[in-house]
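Researcher: I've been going back and forth with a colleague about how LytR/CpsA/Psr regulator C-terminal domain-containing protein might be arranged in three dimensions. Neither of us has a model we trust, so I'd like an independent prediction. The organism is Cryobacterium arcticum, in case that matters for your notes. Sequence below.
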Amino acid sequence: MPTSYPKDRFDDLPHKLDRVGAHRAPAKRGSRWVAFWWALAATALLIGLGAVGLSVLNNRLNFTIPGIASETATEAPTETAVPTAEPTTDPSASVTVLNGTPTTGVARSVGDLLTANGWTVGTTTDADTEDIATTTVYYADATLEGAARGVAALLPGSAISLSVDGTGSDATLTVVVGSDYVMPEG
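Model: Here is an independent structure prediction for LytR/CpsA/Psr regulator C-terminal domain-containing protein. You can compare it with whatever you and your colleague have in mind.
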């Protein structure tokens, strides 16, 4: 077997090609950036799909562009007077008073105030937490709104709230005293 072969056209290659083997040409300029741009495009696509998915799932993202009117624009609702019940005193309604402040004796003080004004106070105790900011009167049925307003009228600055889940007591009304309540002196 011959160990050397005669020269042919494949033996005369220019040196500037820097080829390794017969089929490999040098890499094109900037070819290393292709992977970076593909990764950037994939990341942007995934972020966009995630934002759209979240907006569909919890409907909290707002994609309105300022200056462009929305197709689903609705007129602002006109303000109408909401009928409210007149404050009443209902001695047959039982009231539970919960102290939502770190001060001791607040529930008893509010209970004494309500009893002096004709209310039937059942339990006076501490609430589960001591960081309640606003005194609130909770009522479980819409027909008790007048009674809740009657209790709230005795506690300046207090709010009323319909609690359909219940307040955790068997009473008709539940007062949770907040840090805004000022105890009377004496």
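Researcher: What would you highlight for our discussion?
Model: I'd start with this: Residues 74 and 80 are 17 Å apart (CA to CA). After that, consider the following. Residues 29-64 form one domain.
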